[in-house]
Write a structure and sequence with these properties.
Blueprint (H helix, E strand, L loop, with lengths): L2 H25 L7 H27 L7 H11 L1 H10 L10 H27 L7
Helix pairs in contact: 1-2, 1-5, 2-3, 3-5, 4-5
């Protein structure tokens, strides 16, 4: 597998992991009545990440055919910074039942980790060029 294919496969897998992690952080709130509302909202707003994962996979495995997806993937990755920055600055609401310091630390550190990995991937996407005929 070429380096580009491997990178885009890793990027697509990261988007799925990112979606699952943020979905779990928002929805796994034991003992709260509003968890169902968070579940629907998180699925609704997070579904774009799954489309981004599919676009990255198609771009990695068939770069000539899906070269037109590259600007859209870059824009989607740039737009994904907004919620991450918002989560870092405002914090993710913590459930009152969450008394474990480890659970609190995971909820506090996850947005920073996501923002860091997203930044690295975005800078690679900016520098990536598809070679070949137009």
């Amino acid at each position: 597998m070429g380096r580009e294919k491997l990178f885009f496969a890793v990027c697509a897998a990261w988007e799925v992991v990112r979606f699952a992690a943020l979905f779990a952080i928002l929805t796994v709130q034991p003992g709260t009545a509003g968890a169902a509302v968070y579940t629907v909202t998180a699925l609704w707003f997070g579904s774009g990440q799954l489309a981004l994962a599919a676009a990255m996979a198609m771009l990695g495995f068939f770069p000539e055919r899906y070269r037109c997806y590259l600007p859209l993937v870059r824009l989607a990755k740039l737009l994904s910074f907004g919620p991450a920055i918002l989560a870092v600055t405002s914090g993710i609401p913590v459930s009152l039942d969450m008394v474990s310091p480890a659970a609190y630390l995971v909820r506090a550190v996850t947005p920073l980790a996501v923002l860091g990995v997203d930044s690295l991937l975005f800078f690679f996407l900016l520098s990536y060029r598809i070679t070949g005929e137009e």
